[in-house]
Design brief:
Strands 18, 19, 20, 21 and 22 form a five-stranded mixed beta sheet that branches. The protein has 14 helices and 25 strands. It folds into two domains: about 200 residues, Enolpyruvate transferase domain (UDP-n-acetylglucosamine1-carboxyvinyl-transferase, Chain, Alpha-beta prism), CATH 3.65.10; about 210 residues, Alpha-beta prism (UDP-n-acetylglucosamine1-carboxyvinyl-transferase, Chain). The longest helix is centred in the middle third of the chain and has 14 residues. It starts with a strand and ends with a strand. Helix 4 packs parallel to helix 6, helix 5 packs parallel to helix 6 and helix 10 packs parallel to helix 12. Strand 8 and strand 9 form a beta hairpin. With about 425 residues, it is α/β, with parallel strands linked by helices. About 30% of the residues lie in helices and about 30% in strands. Bound molecules: uridine-diphosphate-N-acetylglucosamine (UD1). Uridine-diphosphate-N-acetylglucosamine binds next to helix 1, helix 5 and helix 6.
Amino acid sequence: MQKLLIKGKKKLSGNISISGSKNATLPILAASILAHNVRLKNVPFVKDIFTMLELLKFIGINSKILTKKREINLLNNQKKINTLAPYKLVKTMRAGVLVLGPLLTKYKKAKVSLPGGCAIGTRPVDLHLFALKKLGAKIKIKNGYIIAEAKKGLKGNIVKFPTISVGATENALIAAYGAEGKTILHNCAIEPEIHDLILFLKKLGSKIKISGRKIIIFGNNSSKENVNHKIIFDRIEAGTYLIAGALIGKKITISRIDTKNLKSETDVLKSMGVKLLIKKNSISIISTNKMKKVSISTKPYPGFPTDLQAQLMVLMTQAEGLSKIKENIFENRFMHVPELKRMGAKIEIKNKTAYIFGPTKLYGAEVMATDLRASVSLVLAGLIADNRTIVNRIYHLDRGYEFLENKLKNCKAQIKRI
Ligand code: UD1
């Protein structure tokens, strides 16, 4: 099994070019079921994307990967479409459940494995099913599968989500695209990745209006055959490298981003006293000797993202005083804490809040993580720790970080895969 070996304390300097967003690509790949021919640019070639392509292949949609161009071409020739998403493909990646909306809206039926829980929480799909039922789907759960049908097709309706969910908003948006008439979604997630999906659906011929957390979709039957789309940048990857720069950057510049999507992240870093030079499409960051404590709560966008909480916690171990993180999105997302404590961090957890006492010296150790963002937080801790850190189970990292060690190595980090 592969591991990452990191020799800490090496100052980082250089440029990091940010990849396309994994979380934007996944729903757009699912929505590609609706089109004939799709060309996606700026695709990050990470494990989750390949898992989704495997699922699409199982369904009957072929893809051609142009690695050098960072492109994927997808072809739905309608011949042998399988409306099944099997357990073996959905269990490894929850986003597999996003094929439910497009299959149902286009082929009027779908059988999709329930994704089950994962390390960060139970992660149910009740909100996805709630929205699809409102659009007229008949749904039952049998033998671990969601079995959905809409014999006469989906019909537009008003859907008021009781709580905000990224995935449920995406499934509902894609389903509403193929529904008859108008759908109004209230209390939607409005992450930049949702905006990217909306842009993609518009290119497919849909009319969509968005105002605050309300999205209106006018059902479309005359979809465009060919669609070209460039995926937005990965704001979580960008935030991760910003934190690396704040931790140990002589000067790091991250580029190929849109800084207006990183406001909550840069606001937190500024309040800690980190020096940032923010331009429209790049940010330079320099670490500072004295960082101030900060308290944050994770929230849906435009709030601070849960996907950056573990990374920020490492930075908080270096700030003066007592910092706090309240995790509001997932119930079990402090799995990195015991490992950070083994490296010397002083952290206590009470209910949903982590209390981080700083500044603390971190020491290299052999560590392992249970999810994607927790793994990268251990890499960040390794960059500032004394001696050697070994991060195990890096298949988690490979699910979502493209060229992680190369990007860090280019900035002079001492890191290698063994
Ligand atoms: C997406 C992101 C993930 C990020 C999360 C929150 C992708 C592929 N993944 O995940 O990286 O951490 O948003 O920003 O884009 N919930 C329910 N019922 C449902 C659906 C969700 O109770 O039907 C709960 C979840 O358990 C969680 C909360 O709602 O507590 C938010 O989940 P959601 O926004 O749906 O996250 P995902 O779409 O799974």
